[in-house]
Write a structure and sequence with these properties.
two-stranded antiparallel ribbon; about 70 residues; about 20% helix; 1 helix
C-alpha cells in the first residue's frame, strides 16, 4: 500500500486543523496566534483556508469589481 504524499502544495499553507496554535494566510503566508476575528475562513474540499485581513479585503474588492453596475 502506498503512503500518501503530505508535502504542502501551493495554496495549502493556510490549510490547518481548527485546533492549530497559529493561523497562516493561504494567500500571503502571514501568521497570527489562533484564528483572528478579522480574518476570513473558507472550507474547500473539507479543508479550512484562512485569508488575512488584507488579502480578504483585496479578494472582496476583486469580486465587487466584477459586478455589473446594476448591483450598485
Amino acid at each position: 500500500m502506498e503512503q500518501e504524499d503530505e508535502t504542502p502544495q501551493p495554496g495549502d499553507q493556510g490549510a490547518q486543523p481548527p485546533d492549530a496554535g497559529s493561523t497562516v494566510c493561504s494567500n500571503c503566508g502571514a501568521t497570527a496566534d489562533g484564528p483572528p476575528v478579522t480574518w476570513t475562513c473558507s472550507v474547500e474540499n473539507g479543508v479550512r483556508h484562512y485569508l488575512c485581513e488584507d488579502c480578504a479585503r483585496a479578494n472582496i474588492r476583486a469580486i465587487e469589481g466584477r459586478l455589473d453596475s446594476a448591483w450598485w
